[in-house]
Amino acid sequence: MQLNFGGFVPLSTVDWRGKSVCTIFFRGCPVRCAYCQNSAILTGKDLRDLDEIAGMIKGSVLAISGVVFSGGEPTLQKDALLALAKTAKSLGLAVGIHTNGVYPDTLSALIENRLVDHVALDIKARWARYNNLFRVNCVESVQKSLALCRTAQKNGTLPEFEVVITLFRGYEDEVPLIAQEAGDVDIVLQQGVTESVRPLSEAEMKKIADTLARAVRIRTREGGEIVYEGDRSRRASRKRQG
Fold this sequence. Notes:
- The chain is of the alpha/beta class.
- It has 8 helices and 10 strands.
- The protein has one domain: Aldolase class I (TIM Barrel).
- The chain is globular.
C-alpha cells in the first residue's frame, strides 16, 4: 500500500497542545481553501510505500508521545490513514487527526476501531455559506463529521475533540454563528493569514471571543496558543442581566 505523501516533521510541539509529536502530511484535498498554509500539497503526486512512512514514525519514537496526521486532507486516503494509525498505536503512540470533515466515513472507521485520540475539525464558515465557498458540496458531510465526533466524545470513544475556526477580517460576525452550530465542544479561534488582508490581532480576536460567553483557545502566529476565558467584567454583566 502507498501514501500520496506531503511531508514529515519529526518533532513538533505546536500540532497537538501539550504533546510532543511527529506530523505526517497527506497530499491532496478536495476543498482547496484559498488561504491554505499548505497549498503546495493540495495537488500532485509523491507516492511512498507505507513501510517508509512507518520508518519515519519509528525514527522519532523516542522523542514523541503521539503522531498527528494532517494535510492536505488525511481522511481522503482512508486505507493508508487507517494502516498508519494502527502502526502508531502498535508503538504505544497517541493519534491525532487534523481534518476538514469531508470524509465522515473515514472518521467513523478510526473511532470505531479506537485508532484516534484527538480530532481537530476545521469548520470554515457558517453552514448557509459552505457550499458556495468551495469546489465541492460538502456541508452535509461536515455536519455528519461534527455530529459523529460530538457523540464519540460524549460516549468516551474519542478522548479529545475540538472545532477550529479560522478568522479573517470582514467575517468576524460569523464566529458566534459557527460556534453555536458547533455546539458544546472546545473551540479554537485561529488567526487567518493571507497576503491580501491584514490579519486580526490577538486583541481583536479576544474581543470576538468575548461574544461567545465561553472559554476558548486563541492561536496566532505572533503569540502562539493561549487559553482565553473572556473579559470577566462583560461576563459578570451578562450574568446580572440574565
